[in-house]
Amino acid sequence: MAARPVAHAPSPRTEVFHTAVFAYRGAEHRYKIYVPPLAPGQQVTGLVVMLHGCQQTPDDFAAGTRMNDHARDAQCIVVYPCQPASAHRQRCWNWFDPAAQVRGTGEPAWIAALARGTAKAWGLRRQQVFIAGLSAGGAMAAAVAHAYPDVFAACGVHSGLAAGAARGMVGALSAMRHGSSIGRPPPVRQVPTIVFHGDRDRAVHPRHGAHVLAAALKPSATGIALADPLASPEVTAMQTEGGHASTRHIYRNPQRRAVAERWEVHGMGHAWSGGSTRGSYVDPAGPDASAAMLAFFRQAGPGTPSAR
After folding, report:
1. What single DSSP character describes residue 113?
2. How far is CA 137 from CA 16, 83, 153, 241, in A?
3. How many CB atoms lie within 10 A of CB 220?
4. Residue 157's closest CA among 113, 93, 99, 97?
5. 180-193: b (≥16 Cβ within 10 Å) or e
């Protein structure tokens, strides 16, 4: 396993966003990496792995989510793995593949290895490593976090599905259309999760937002004790100026740390909330999902990045 070029530190005050190659088990995987400008002696505060949706590229996804802009202020690295057309003709992550449902196989294995290698190169701990994605990328983020809770401190799922929502292409299409979910048992250690979903999503049924949330709150997971997690969230009605209204649900453990958060964006379809039209599948009229995710990640563990 080798990752290049992530091991070197940038020159002081130099901002980097370039293509790199990750070698894993005899295959090479392309990705883009963003490194914020750093003053002399300054260190990065965290790592966010961002998984694009179908028909997207890392550049498109970065532009649409504006995650690099937020990461600049938070002084964290952002890694964008690239799904080539050779792996899926529409560049979708194969989250429904049985190999993606277990640890050590499929696309989750190299994504987790890339995150682990990058974190090690920059001296970051697990509490500073996060993963998020949109649509098929959101479903894959959930699958990767499910399989590798020892690598990621928190997960963001935007317009996606819970880990194990389908096995096989036919099941995936049915689940996306009807909102069904076959579910999976929780991992040994659950990963705090933030969910965004538009209630007018016609590509991935809005019901999946609740499925992802329920998976994140399964009481048998160790380390997250909630007396009645689904019955007592903090609920806030919000309004984006000149845009969509939204409802935010926050679930906290007895120590008052948020272990799950769900944003239901009213009137929004299949798009990244609060994104920039420089990218695809975005809705600028919604609340800023990138900022909300970084804020959630910041409180998921000590030493995590802050939002704008």
Report:
1. H
2. 23, 10, 18, 28
3. 10
4. 93
5. bbeebebbeebbbb
Confidence of residue 232 (pLDDT cuts 50, 70, 90): confident
Q: Which amino acid is at 166?
A: A
Beta bridge partners of 44: none
Per-residue confidence at 252, pLDDT binned at 50, 70, 90? confident
pLDDT greater at residue 155 or residue 10: 155
State mean pLDDT over 57-62: 98
Q: How far is CA 24 from CA 7, 87, 102, 252, in A?
A: 16, 15, 18, 38
The neighbour count for residue 125, using CB atoms within 10 Å, is 14
**How much is the CA Rg of the chain, to the nearest whole Å?**
18
Give the Cα separation of 179 and 285 in Å (integer). 25
**Mean pLDDT throughout 258-262?**
92
The whole-angstrom separation of Cα 48 and Cα 305 is: 9
Eight-class DSSP state of 6 = S
pLDDT reported for residue 2? 40
pLDDT surpassing 60 at residue 10: no
Q: What angle do CA 201, 298, 193 make, to 5 degrees?
A: 40
